[in-house]
Recover the amino acids of this structure.
């Protein structure tokens, strides 16, 4: 075969990336854990959204022009742990089973694998979160009768917030997965960063511990979704920057480890 024929048969990097994304998509949806985590997130967001709607509908003094979209904000925080776990397990499962070796034999370009796995897992979790946020708001609206509103402007703001929080949070989880390569360790780290430390550290009464808590991604995700705490100088801009910094830093660290460390270590 001539050199010209060889060059014409080469597959471009874009084609390899798309094929790898397709493989990662198939892998994600053929694992039962994916369906269980999505079912858990759906139960939390739709179920609690309906409960919030029933409570609003039975309130003898309802708040005028209260928005059903608020249900998506408050149900999004507990539901995000299902998405974080989904992404983390999707990234680390290969390391737990030893499947990372044949995976890299099929896709030896580690940069391609990194971006394909990140895009598919984070994108799927974020899109599912947006759809469930809509479902949560609809459940609250229907359950409340005529008490709650469902305006388009509020919906756009809510879905933008939910999309960012879920994307940044699951990006952080994916980065942790690539860095730690351990499912249990990754789950513990995510739980600490997103929930436990942001809530516990300020309780000790030391200013420096409160400052540390303010710099954690969990504190900022709580603020963006619920508006709390509202007495520590948080802003939307600073919260977005903090969450992006964590996500990008962990993804970059995970990318470096994937490219420079043996896959079986």
């Amino acid at each position: 075969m001539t050199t010209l024929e060889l060059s014409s048969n080469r597959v471009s990097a874009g084609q390899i990336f798309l094929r790898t994304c397709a493989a990662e998509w198939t892998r994600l949806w053929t694992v039962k854990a994916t369906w269980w985590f999505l079912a858990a997130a759906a139960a939390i967001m739709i179920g609690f959204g309906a409960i919030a709607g029933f409570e609003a509908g039975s309130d003898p003094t309802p708040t005028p022009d209260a928005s059903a979209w608020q249900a998506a904000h408050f149900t999004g925080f507990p539901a995000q742990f299902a998405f974080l776990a989904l992404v983390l397990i999707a990234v680390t499962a290969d390391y737990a089973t030893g499947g990372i070796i044949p995976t890299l034999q099929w896709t030896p370009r580690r940069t391609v694998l990194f971006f394909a796995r990140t895009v598919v897992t984070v994108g799927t979790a974020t899109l599912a979160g947006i759809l469930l946020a809509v479902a949560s708001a609809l459940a609250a609206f229907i359950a409340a009768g005529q008490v709650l509103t469902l305006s388009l402007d509020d919906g756009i703001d809510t879905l933008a917030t939910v999309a960012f929080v879920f994307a940044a949070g699951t990006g952080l989880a994916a980065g942790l997965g690539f860095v730690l390569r351990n499912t249990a360790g990754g789950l513990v780290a995510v739980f600490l960063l997103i929930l436990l430390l942001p809530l516990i550290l300020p309780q000790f009464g030391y200013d420096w511990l409160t400052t540390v808590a303010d710099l954690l991604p969990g504190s900022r995700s709580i603020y963006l979704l619920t508006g709390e705490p509202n007495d520590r100088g948080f802003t939307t801009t600073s919260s977005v920057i903090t969450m992006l910094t964590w996500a990008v830093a962990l993804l970059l660290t995970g990318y470096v480890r994937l490219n420079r460390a043996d896959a079986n270590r």
